[in-house]
Every structure is written in structure tokens, then in C-alpha cells.
Design a protein that fits this description.
With 283 residues, this protein is α+β, with helices and mostly antiparallel strands. Helices cover 19% and strands 36% of the residues. The chain has a single domain (10-282), classed as Roll (2,3-Dihydroxybiphenyl 1,2-Dioxygenase, domain 1), CATH 3.10.180. The chain is globular.
Length: 283
């Protein structure tokens, strides 16, 4: 399944703001299983394979907690290579006494928890894409109870959780937005994603390359929810990987046709969705 490499357009990296860097590093290393790729006094880049950063955390000066009922991060989702990896981390969480939520989405099996600043995290494994059910361009997804015993039966003898496997990628990001219709226009007509699932008028899921979703969008924080203040914890920006420069040029032109500006900042193409979620466009 090549849903997170070229020629697919996908979410590659997430940068989040935190109140206390040391506290966050301890959580992301000890609970999630990241390694530190690069660290400064106020930032850290987190990696699974020792080479590629999937998440960056930045400590703010005089940071405040992110207010409730604002736009921004609902969760970012780390995709594990195998169902057996999900079994290993479930065993690890049981040993550590980590409380998590869980769900079977038919296309995937997921665990949910939050970091010390309330940033939502999903850790999941995909079912084989040949089992996903599609009809008229829409993929069937659900929120069913997770079959934990079934997952644990996949555990390989002699294996244990030793941190995020090297093949872990940023599977998707899920965002709170203020207006679903306006947001859909930006992400589909502007960025070029396809709508692959809808949850009434409350949420929609979009992807490239026939994936079940690279981005989730919802209005569960309230229609018309404001963006959080810049000095609060939460999402700083996320990075979308585009397959080539020609695609980026087309995306920039299409985004600007929707009435949204794309700026070049220190060589990086930067835009913002209608709800204030900041995006880097990378090739």
C-alpha cells in the first residue's frame, strides 16, 4: 500500500506547540516511543526511523492552554506498519497503565490518547486495502468497538514494544474547522483532495490516491468556532507532501482561485485554510 509516498499527496509532518518541552519530550519518548532526531533549548524533532521527523514540538514563551471550542488539531495519527505492532503497543500500554480510547473503523484499527497539553494522538494500523468497501467513490467507515483480543493474537513470539517501528508514518491529520462547506472547497478545489466519506453535515474525510483519508475535518467544536490564539498550545502547522514541482504550481494557483493566499516564507510555500489551520506545501 503506497498511500504515503509519491505520486500520492499526503500529510507528512505535524508541528505542535507545547507549554513545557521537557515534559513533552518525556511523554513522546516514554509513552509514544519516539526518538529525538534534533533538539534545541525550545524545540525537538521526533523520529521513528532515526532519519525522518514525523512530529516537531515547540515550547512557547508564556504559553497558555488551548481554549476549548476552537479550530485546530483534533488529532494527528501515527500509522504503524503491521497489526502486530498495534498488539505490541497495546501490551505496552497495559504494562504502563496508560489509559486509551479505541475504535474499529473497518478500514483501520485505532487507539486514542492525548499528550500533556491535550494534543490528540491516534495510533493505528490499516487493514489491507483490498478489504475496504467502496461505493460511488465513498469508502465505508464506522466507529465500532475494537477487537483487542483479536489484535493481541497477532503478537509475534519473542517480540515486544521497543518504540515506534522504523516504518511508522504520519497516517493522517484530523482538524476542527469552522465551516465544513467552505473548508471542503479549499481542500478539494484548492489542494486537490477527493472527498471519500461524509458524516452528515458534521464531518468529512478527504484523501489522495484512493486512501481512506489523509485529512479529517469536523465542526464538533462548533460551527463558526474561532481560531485559538497564537500563544496557546496546539497545532502550529502541518506539512503536505506534493509529488512534484508541477503539482505544487498547480495547487498554488488553485488555492489562490479559492481566494486564499499562498506566501513563500524562507523558501517554504505557506497557506492557511479558512479556519486558520496553517499548512506548508512541500515537494
Amino acid at each position: 500500500m503506497n498511500f504515503h509516498r509519491k505520486p500520492t499527496t499526503f500529510v507528512e509532518h505535524v508541528t505542535i506547540k507545547v507549554e513545557n518541552l521537557a515534559r513533552s519530550i518525556q511523554f513522546y519518548k516514554e509513552i509514544i516511543g519516539f526518538k529525538i532526531l534534533v533538539q534545541t533549548k525550545t524545540t525537538a524533532q521526533l523520529t521513528a526511523d532515526g532519519k525522518t521527523s514525523l512530529v516537531s514540538i515547540e515550547q512557547l514563551e508564556e504559553a497558555v492552554p488551548e481554549p476549548s471550542r476552537t479550530t485546530g488539531l483534533y488529532h494527528f495519527a501515527l500509522l504503524l506498519p503491521r497489526r502486530a505492532d498495534l498488539a505490541n503497543i497495546i501490551n505496552y500500554f497495559i504494562e504502563k497503565g496508560v489509559r486509551v480510547g479505541s475504535s474499529d473503523h473497518w478500514v483501520s484499527e485505532s487507539l486514542y490518547l492525548s499528550d500533556p497539553d491535550g494534543n490528540g494522538i491516534e495510533i493505528y494500523a490499516d487493514r489491507d486495502s483490498s478489504t475496504w468497501e467502496w461505493e460511488n467513490g465513498q469508502v465505508a467507515m464506522a466507529v465500532d468497538p475494537l477487537n483487542v483480543p483479536g489484535i493481541l493474537s497477532e503478537k509475534k513470539e519473542g517480540e515486544s514494544w521497543e518504540g515506534l517501528p522504523a516504518g511508522t508514518v504520519m497516517g493522517h491529520i484530523h482538524l476542527h474547522v469552522a465551516d465544513l462547506q467552505e473548508t471542503m472547497i479549499f481542500y478539494t478545489e484548492g489542494l486537490g483532495f477527493d472527498v471519500v466519506s461524509k458524516l452528515g453535515d458534521q464531518a468529512l474525510f478527504i484523501s489522495s490516491g484512493h486512501y481512506h483519508h489523509h485529512i479529517g475535518l469536523n465542526t464538533w467544536a462548533g460551527v463558526g468556532a474561532p481560531a485559538p490564539p497564537d500563544h496557546s498550545s496546539g497545532l502550529k502547522f502541518f506539512t503536505i507532501n506534493l509529488p512534484n514541482e508541477a503539482t505544487r504550481e498547480r495547487v498554488v494557483a488553485n488555492v489562490e482561485k479559492t481566494g486564499v493566499t499562498v506566501a513563500k516564507e524562507n523558501g517554504v510555500f505557506v497557506t492557511m485554510d479558512p479556519s486558520g489551520n496553517r499548512i506548508h506545501l512541500k515537494v
